[in-house]
Write a structure and sequence with these properties.
173 residues; alpha+beta; single chain; Thiol Ester Dehydrase, Chain A; five-stranded antiparallel β-sheet; 30% helix; 3 helices
Length: 173
């Protein structure tokens, strides 16, 4: 891990992207296809991971994505992303997705989805490389960091259980 002097704050790499949806992104129900929202969220998270790590980073996992409401054709979709946690070579990036009608700025943006991506920084040979640590500053950043640690512990425990089951070992109670 890098020294505390090299640690970065979540605001260092924060990114927001936006797009206006069209019929090209519509699913069979006439709403924007969830995969289009995932793609935009992944692109936003990737920009954050690149900024935080100072070089290439690849998506290792989409830890979770919760769709709260449909996105309608014609909506302006905005993503907001930041690093929630950073380890030796991996980072959790949280993404919030909001929409607003394209033709009515008086309508408050609506929170429609949230996602948590895990990215791994890579070198020119495709091997994992170290990333700067994370230094949360605000109470919200501290909360996000704590929750990201819980998600990481859950991912690691799930992996151990699966590996144990595949090796014929006992499952945990």
């Amino acid at each position: 891990m890098t020294s505390a002097a090299e640690d970065r704050t979540p605001s260092y790499a924060r990114v927001s992207l936006a797009m206006m949806t069209s019929g090209r992104e519509a699913n069979l129900l006439g709403n924007v296809h969830g995969g289009e929202i995932v793609k935009l969220a992944d692109s936003t998270a990737g920009a954050v991971a690149q900024r935080h790590s100072g070089g290439p980073a690849v998506t290792a996992a989409l830890d979770s994505m919760a769709f709260l409401r449909p996105v309608h054709v014609g909506d302006i979709v905005r993503t907001f992303a930041q690093v929630n946690w950073a380890g030796r070579s991996s980072m959790e990036i949280g993404v919030r997705i909001e929409t607003q009608p394209w033709d009515d700025p008086s309508v408050e943006p609506l929170h429609v989805a949230s996602a948590y991506f895990v990215f791994v920084a890579i070198d020119e040979h495709g091997h994992a490389r170290e990333v700067p640590g994370l230094r949360p500053e605000t109470p919200d950043e501290v909360r996000r960091h704590r929750e990201a640690q819980i998600r990481r512990a859950s991912r690691l425990a799930r992996k151990r259980e699966i590996d144990s089951g595949r090796a014929g070992g006992p499952l945990a109670p």
